[in-house]
Amino acid sequence: MELRHLRYFVAVAEELHFNRAADRLHMSQPPLSQQIKQLEDELRVPLLNRTKRHVSLTSAGVAFLAEVRKILAHIDYAVTVARDMGSGERGALRFGSIYSAIYSVMPTILRSLSKSYPNLAVDVFELTIAQQLEQLKDGKIDVGILRLPIFDDLVNTRTIFEEGLMAVVPSMHPLARQREVSLDELVDHPLILSGIGLRANFRQQTLDILSRQQKPLIIAREVAEMHTLISLVGSGLGVALVPETVSRIKIADVTYLPLSDEVPKVGVALAWHRERETPALLRLMEVVFSLDLPAQPTD
């Protein structure tokens, strides 16, 4: 039994007329009759009642038609799934992200991706930069959002937006009453740096900016992650410089302040393994690179 036999049978069963069924199938009537007879012989049961003027389904034919329709629908769906998977319009992606991006740009990315490719399923994981790089290379995630610079020959990056820096101070701190703060004012207080491990690049950027004031820096703490830094600021242990999107981290007892000084911006990038550009990943990249980020999340 071949798939074409099933399609031939459905056409005859729906038309209840061999000539009309043959026209629908773009074939002549005699070969169609032969194929249906071969199908009945293989099944060892008649599917059709035939007279010179009338064709009708036997009880076996009615039951067979219902099941064949299910089979053909499932096959058609399987073909669609395979084609969509091959084109990247269907599939699954594992998406790592730094903490702040989950609350800033990730909602916009996921909404746009769902609108363009509703059959692409995305699982989002909050991961540090170090974790993202490790899991990209291990194949545990397909793509990530992280801060630049990154130096890894196996990982490709492309900047999706650049953001400025802000000061974050304890809410009871004298600086918290100001509308903005200068770097000169900030360096007079104990500093908390985010700069352990792979954040050493951001740590160095922060130190380069603050050192311009030509004042001795008081380093109170150094931490690995931004949300830890914000928590320590809220505890009154110091002040800090953070990227603007980090201000989406709402922790009690901290105040975010714009800087009165011009400072270099920090790049935020999409990252992926250079040898694992799957069709689904390419679709995601197409969507992300078309967006004007960062965008405000909706409430």
Summarize the structure.
The chain is of the alpha/beta class and 299 residues long. Helices cover 43% and strands 23% of the residues. The protein starts with a helix and ends in a 9-residue tail after the last helix.
What do we call the CATH homologous superfamily of the largest domain? Periplasmic binding protein-like II
What's the β-strand tally? 12
Q: What is the CATH top level name of the largest domain?
A: Alpha Beta
CATH topology of the largest domain: D-Maltodextrin-Binding Protein, domain 2
Main beta sheet strand tally, sense and closure? 5 strands, mixed
**Element-by-element helix/strand order:** HHHEEHEHHEHEEEHEHEHEEEH
What is the overall number of helices?
A: 11
Query: Measured on Cα atoms, how large is the radius of gyration?
Result: 32 Å
- Classify the secondary structure makeup into a structural class: alpha/beta
C-alpha geometry: rod-shaped
Query: How large a portion of the residues is in β-strands, by DSSP E?
Result: 15-25%
Question: What does the average pLDDT come to?
Answer: 89
Question: Which residue ranges are poorly predicted, with pLDDT under 50 across at least 5 consecutive positions?
Answer: none
- What's the CATH architecture name of the largest domain? 3-Layer(aba) Sandwich
> What is the number of domains?
3
State the strand order across the main sheet.
Answer: 4-3-5-12-6
Question: How far apart, in Å, are the first and last alpha carbons?
Answer: 57 Å
Explain what the structure shows.
With 299 residues, the protein is α/β, with parallel strands linked by helices. It has three domains: 3-87, Winged helix-like DNA-binding domain superfamily/Winged helix DNA-binding domain (Arc Repressor Mutant, subunit A, Orthogonal Bundle); 91-161 and 267-290, D-Maltodextrin-Binding Protein, domain 2 (3-Layer(aba) Sandwich), CATH 3.40.190; 165-264, D-Maltodextrin-Binding Protein, domain 2. 43% of the residues lie in helices and 23% in strands. The protein is built from eleven helices and twelve strands. The protein has a five-stranded mixed beta sheet with strand order 4-3-5-12-6, sandwiched between helices. The protein has a three-stranded antiparallel beta sheet with strand order 10-7-11. β1 and β2 (55-57) form a beta hairpin. α1 (3-15) packs across α2, α1 crosses α3 (29-43) and α1 packs across α4 (59-87). The longest helix is centred in the N-terminal third of the chain and has 29 residues, at 59-87. Transcriptional regulator of the ttuABCDE tartrate utilization operon. GO terms for molecular function: DNA binding; DNA-binding transcription factor activity. One of its GO terms (cellular component) is protein-DNA complex. InterPro entries: LysR_HTH_N, LysR_subst-bd, WH-like_DNA-bd_sf, WH_DNA-bd_sf. Residues 1-58 form the HTH lysR-type domain.
